[in-house]
Amino acid sequence: MKASVQEVLKNTDLSQQKALGEIVYEAFRMTIIQGKIPFGERINEKEYSEIMNISRTPIRFALKILEKEGLVEYIPKVGVVVKEITKKDAIEIYAVRKALETVATETAMQLMTEEDFKELDDLLTETEEKNAQGNVEDVIKLFNKFHEIIYLKSNTLRLREIVMNIQEYLSRFRRICLNTADRRDQAVVEHRLLYHAMVAKDKRRVQLLIEDHLNSSLAFVLQEMEKEDQINESQTK
Q1: Residue 232: pLDDT above 70?
Q2: Residues spanned by the domain of 169
Q3: What does the pLDDT average to over 182-189?
Q4: SS (H, E, C) 49-81
Q5: Considering 67, 82, 97, which residue would you say is the last residue of a domain?
Q6: For residue 48, is pLDDT > 70?
Q7: Residue whose C-alpha is closest to residue 224's, from 101, 85, 108
Q8: Strand pairing partners for 79?
Q9: CB atoms inside a 10 Å sphere around CB 73
């Protein structure tokens, strides 16, 4: 069984109270955005149908939605293949993220109690400790939790819904950044500075820190994507 098929199966949660087509769609979407299905790889309906022990109908349903979202494309005489997540995609996602995080953070810091700030402080302390130990996976999980807490405390349901729609993109880009020690160290410091600005309720400082943090993150992601493009080009020559 191909690794990509195994990843789709891993992301398929049949315990959800949703239509099968929607579950399959979410599994494919998450797997593609995570980069677990290589771009250019053909998604064979028959293969997935047999391995997942389901009819082709929910798979076909999922692929139609993914095609509308630009994550897959139909190529005549080839079939449905995974499209590459481009630099343009990254720039667009970061622009959305910058706007969302600014609003959520500014709102959250006005509503958070001393206990809430203590929770965030403890989380950052644990993040700093895990980073010093070189525990990348825990650092990634703690950074995700940091942002989850801010969105939760902001009490902005619509913002949280929007973020959930791009969560896989955010997780993929965050993983690209945090797998490198220098960028990870920088990000840890930037999160601590943001925390202090939130405690001080310094709106302007919060805006500047979020902008600087995300600009640095985007620059790093684009640099890594450029490296990957160069590797792919050299392999095709």
Answers
A1: no
A2: 87-236
A3: 95
A4: HHHHCCCHHHHHHHHHHHHHCCCEEEECCCEEE
A5: 82
A6: yes
A7: 85
A8: 75
A9: 12
